[in-house]
């Protein structure tokens, strides 16, 4: 078995093929996912490989897709539902919050809800309104839901397989602007990655850069720019934002004494605030400067002509790094 290069989008497709081949209980459903292979072609080839009974085209009805998936999951299937864009998920929130996240608790463990909700997320692909949302914090607040956001092909592959194995609901959000960026070597060996762990992408000693999803791309670029200035930055991909791997984050911040958190979602009420508060509770006396957050402004994602002003960029990250490095 040899490694080929895959994009994040292709890695998702590869993981779905493997999961469906390994377990007949895995079914895939969503809008245009069968005949058309999905709006981004993430499910291309699944209908031909596994048939229409396991690859189900649905009406444009997100509430129905979620409700149907919960019913399937409660009765032993493993549905992988796709919401075409994260901005279309709001009509399904009742099902996710009131039923998917509570089923194990409501039945005192008699029933579980092993579903995966996949959805593209985020800006950067010149899309119109409702196609560029990054609202992961909504789901991170809900007990019973696990929230995963991969930032590379290998992590998309391994985390999606692990999500499908999980006996409880997983919200699996795929950054659209990373879909076809930077193909990387990947071995289709079925190896699962741990769902509740951060990934340290770069070791460092002077400050910790924390990010997830598409913003990991700019964060790594900022770390390289800092290295040219003689600053050693540790880069951590959170990957699973609910539950958080706070032990890894705490250990890094205790080592470096400084922290900058980068995310694409709006700043107010974002997951960055939860991480910062948790680090203050755990490691306040080891911090040499206040934690900085780099995030989008508290406005709806703009139309594509203004996207470059909306999304946090390398310059924004470096400015925040300078603030924590220069703090007395």
Explained architecture:
- With 328 residues, this protein is α/β, with parallel strands linked by helices.
- It has helices spanning 8-22, 46-50, 62-74, 93-100, 103-106, 136-140, 153-165, 215-228, 246-256, 271-283, 307-310, 314-325; strands at 4-6, 26-30, 55-57, 78-82, 116-121, 146-148, 170-175, 184-186, 199-202, 207-211, 233-237, 240-242, 259-266, 292-296.
- Helix content is 36%, strand content 20%.
- The model has no long low-confidence stretch (mean pLDDT 96).
Short description:
The protein has 328 residues and is of the alpha/beta class. Helix content is 36%, strand content 20%. The chain has a seven-stranded mixed β-sheet, with helices on both faces. A five-stranded mixed β-sheet has the order 9-11-10-13-14, with helices on both faces.
| CATH superfamily annotation of the largest domain | Thiamin diphosphate (ThDP)-binding fold, Pyr/PP domains
What is the averaged pLDDT score? Answer: 96
* The CATH class of the largest domain: Alpha Beta
- Which H/E pattern describes the elements? EHEHEHEHHEHEHEEEEHEEHEHEHH
Largest sheet geometry: 7 strands, mixed
CATH architecture descriptor name of the largest domain: 3-Layer(aba) Sandwich
Domain module count:
2
Write down the overall geometry: globular
